[in-house]
């Protein structure tokens, strides 16, 4: 019988990110219990955040060892929207990094079964880049009985590791985070002829222009639109003498586009990366978090970012 290696050759120095898809309770027990016990043997903090069924299975099979878990929490209590959830997660990771050399997490993002939770796949993809140097093993649990096929396909594309049956192995469908994001963001179509367009040379000018452009029946979130647009304009005007601000209605969605002729973004995933508290970064993160959706196109000839504010606006 082949000996199971719960974390394979992982040496605890960098992120290991595995997407584990299961369709039976026995598979959860066979994969997660040895993963937890290995962590105990290595004196690593073990965190479990999962749905009710997975928590019940682990409680039944771990017995008194359940009390050795550093965290044993209901996944449902963690969902705060994509940006809110990742920001809280980022805070917890930084706290662990300051106190322990390595740790492991078994997490079941149950919110992926909800329409408003599907955006989490984008944050899973970006985690491979922004947490690459974090010394932990993230075992992400996904129930094939509850999740639709397109969400399960996104799991395969956003996790560099999968389970071979005896050890983690490279995921054959894994994609670079930037490529994955481009494929799941709103389709980038040509700017419509009826769009309002203004040339902006200072953020204050842009704030006036966007304030005037928001339709009368969409004023409930005027502050969100103005602040998000300001952040994009401030970024654009750092790299170019002027930016273009375009607005239009696409069905029930108000679209804001900020474009510049600068050198292009160093990383198209920045809108999904939590701000660095030491550097005070995070303009794109803030803009993305205020909008209902966002998309970016960037290259050596410049950058264009679109923010989408749907109707009705979120309270």
TrEMBL record:
SUPFAM superfamilies: ATPase domain of HSP90 chaperone/DNA topoisomerase II/histidine kinase
Segments forming domain Histidine kinase/HSP90-like ATPase: 220-308
Domain MEDS: start-end pairs: 17-160
One MF term in the entry's GO annotations: protein serine/threonine kinase activity
Keywords from the named record: Kinase, Serine/threonine-protein kinase, Transferase
Keyword Lyase: no
Pfam entry (one): HATPase_c_2
Keyword Lyase: no
PANTHER family reported in the protein's UniProt record: ANTI-SIGMA-F FACTOR RSBW, ANTI-SIGMA-F FACTOR RSBW-RELATED
Protein name, per record: MEDS: MEthanogen/methylotroph, DcmR Sensory domain
Gene source species: Geodermatophilus aquaeductus
